[in-house]
Design brief:
With 293 residues, the chain is α+β, with helices and mostly antiparallel strands. Helix content is 39%, strand content 18%. The chain has twelve helices and twelve strands. The longest helix has 20 residues, at 177-196.
């Protein structure tokens, strides 16, 4: 949702708890823009849904987590184990297969179980899975609560890992490209602000915990600082070389029904150099829905 004013457009977010609902909302056009899983965006385009990836949500920000007392010490130890993934369309699923290939393991060496992201920590705690791979803050939750430890941060096993991408309906691009540009610019300058100062990250954790996630701000502060490059919010242009690798792996493991060319599902015309963006940014935590102008 947006609200126009002299200071620009006010974007309100809508929270979803599972990927299937996000996908259906986008198909029905009850939302025009959304952060969604990268392979899911590709498959939507393969299915004829008129969407384009215009930007990334962040880099990295995912971890493989095992139990604190687990005897799993490296990826090879996951052989024969059950690992929770957010969705078969998640890039975390692609990463697991990429790692199995790297470790010369057959793709059926690990049982991958689809589990909604908020349920990953509890599944590990009760022994329903041996490990999980998910985006933050759910990776950090088990670590901070003391029953999980990080086996790998994705930043250490797939440099500049991509999880979520910003997808926009093509109708909105055609009807109001200036609004799309404003949205992309807002994400870009927010990312530079976050990556520019640890104090900014702590401030953002407080605001996001209260107005967006309804979670403990200490958890979000943990995610944004331990280590500080656990998740990065700059270098968010969608690059062909990154997406081609994801696409080929997704097609290889039957996540995609066909190969999808980069130009078919990506519109990078809204990406601008950071120095060309107007850096006046107003955080509005007093709004009951939260938001940024």
């Amino acid at each position: 949702m947006t609200k126009h004013g002299e200071g620009g457009s006010f974007f309100r977010s809508r929270k979803f708890t599972d990927w299937a609902t996000v996908k259906e909302a986008l198909i029905a056009r009850s939302i025009d823009a959304v952060f969604i899983l990268a392979p899911m965006a590709m498959q939507l385009r393969a299915d004829g849904v008129p969407v384009k990836v215009v930007y990334l949500g962040h880099r990295d920000g995912t971890a493989i987590v095992v139990g604190t007392d687990s005897d799993i010490e490296d990826f090879g130890d996951l052989r024969g184990k059950t690992v929770a993934i957010p969705s078969r369309f998640a890039n975390q699923n692609i990463l697991m297969h990429r790692m199995m290939k790297k470790w010369n393991m057959p793709y059926d060496s690990i049982e991958l179980q689809e589990v909604p992201p908020p349920e990953h920590p509890s599944a590990l705690r009760v022994g329903g899975v041996d490990a999980y791979i998910v985006g933050e803050p759910f990776a950090a939750q088990a670590e901070m609560d003391g029953y999980g430890r990080v086996l790998y941060h994705t930043k250490d096993i797939w440099e500049d890992f991509i999880s979520c991408v910003l997808v926009v309906r093509e109708e909105l691009i055609e009807e109001d490209p200036d609004l799309v540009q404003e949205l992309v610019d807002g994400i870009a300058k927010s990312g530079k602000w976050l990556d520019g100062d640890l104090a900014h990250r702590m401030n953002a954790a407080e605001m996001a915990a209260e107005h967006y996630f309804g979670q403990d701000p200490d958890l979000l502060k943990f995610v944004l600082s331990k280590p500080v490059d656990r998740v990065k919010y700059t270098n968010l242009a969608p690059l062909k070389k990154d997406f081609d690798e994801i696409m080929e792996l997704a097609f290889e493991i039957d996540v995609l029904s066909r190969r999808v060319e980069f130009e078919e599902y990506v519109d990078d015309s809204f990406v601008r150099p950071l120095e060309d963006i107007d850096w006046n940014m107003e955080l509005l935590p007093e709004d009951p829905d939260g938001g940024i102008r």
